[in-house]
Write a structure and sequence with these properties.
single chain; 135 residues; mainly alpha; two-stranded antiparallel ribbon; 7 helices; 2 strands
Length: 135
């Protein structure tokens, strides 16, 4: 990501921060969807309690601020020169990971999480009810 954005004279640190935040957000939202379904299946929380939590702003503010803090702490403790030294030349990761793979990754995570959810819990697809695994 750093090399791709620096070649286009774009701020690589800001764009990388946005990309990594997007990835973390996709993963967290997918995990929350699974957690909500598991809590309702096991009757750990009542459906009204789950709806009250979803409609409240506090969990969403905590999730977004937590993701922003995690991304900032994880990727911005090093200086720009440290990242330039890491990604210059023929680093092993640069040989195998292409830019198109980084572009496709968030969509792949979203697509796979939806498919796994439907396989586990079922749902309605193209007007037909699909049954998942029975719990």
């Amino acid at each position: 990501m750093y090399i791709a954005y620096s070649e286009k004279n774009d701020d690589p640190m800001f764009r990388t921060f946005m990309y990594m935040t997007l990835l973390h957000f996709f993963i967290a939202v997918s995990a929350l969807i699974y957690l909500e379904k598991l809590l309702s299946i096991t009757n750990a929380l009542s459906q009204s309690t789950i709806e009250n939590i979803k409609q409240s702003y506090a969990p969403w503010v905590a999730l977004i601020s937590g993701i922003l803090c995690l991304t900032y702490i994880s990727y911005f403790r090093k200086s720009l020169d440290d990242y330039a030294a890491i990604f210059s030349g023929w680093n092993a990761a640069n040989k195998y990971i292409k830019i198109w793979m980084l572009i496709v990754l968030p969509f792949l995570i979203l697509f796979l999480s939806i498919n796994i959810y439907i396989m586990l819990f079922g749902g309605r697809i193209l007007g037909r009810q699909v049954t998942g695994l029975s719990f």
